Amino acid sequence: MNQSIRDAEQFVKENLGQDSTGHDWYHSDRVRKIAVHIAKKEQIGDCFIIELAALLHDIPDDKLHDNEETGLALLDTWFRRNNLPSFQVREIKQIIDSISYSEGQTVLPSIEAKIVQDADRIDALGAIGIARTFAYGGKKGQLLYDPAISVRDSMNKEEYRNGKSTSIHHFHEKLLKLTDMLHTDTAKAIAKERHQYMQQFLQQFNKEWDVLL
């Protein structure tokens, strides 16, 4: 295995290993595995760039730090530790900067970015996605559900991050939209089962919430 890959693994474990919002080392590792699988299945993209970007994609995420500058400085710390060519540093940073859902429907800079974004979104679906949703909501002090709150249809980044919502609302405001936003056929095939599982979960949740015995 390339030394930069090994160092990225250790760096993510050190900095996100204790995260309890669903953005921990295991999330990064799953995204890496899914992204590499997509690239190999589709036979497209630079697997080295894809793997590194997938591993490091949450390091600068501003929701995991006190401010955006802290996260970006942390990512730069890793690049200073590794002597990657400047064009690879630029490509990886462009991927990380562009794939977040909160950034909206931006034009992605490369096929590598599309693959990493697909992998990150797949990990927000299915049983894992359900578990991560409630982990994040609980950590942030969010309500489980309140039917009096309206589902938000369109939001800017500030509204998405800090507007009034609940964990169940998050399924309708984001998660159920992800499958239609994927780029690759491989990702769409993986997402189909996970999407259906979430729909079944919500049906059961609503039945139990309304105490339909």
UniProtKB/TrEMBL annotation:
PROSITE patterns: HD. SUPFAM superfamilies: HD-domain/PDEase-like. Transmembrane segments: none annotated. Signal peptide: none annotated. Residues 24-125 form the HD domain. Gene3D superfamilies: 1.20.58.1910, HD-domain/PDEase-like. It comes from the Bacteria. This is HD domain-containing protein. It comes from Peribacillus psychrosaccharolyticus.
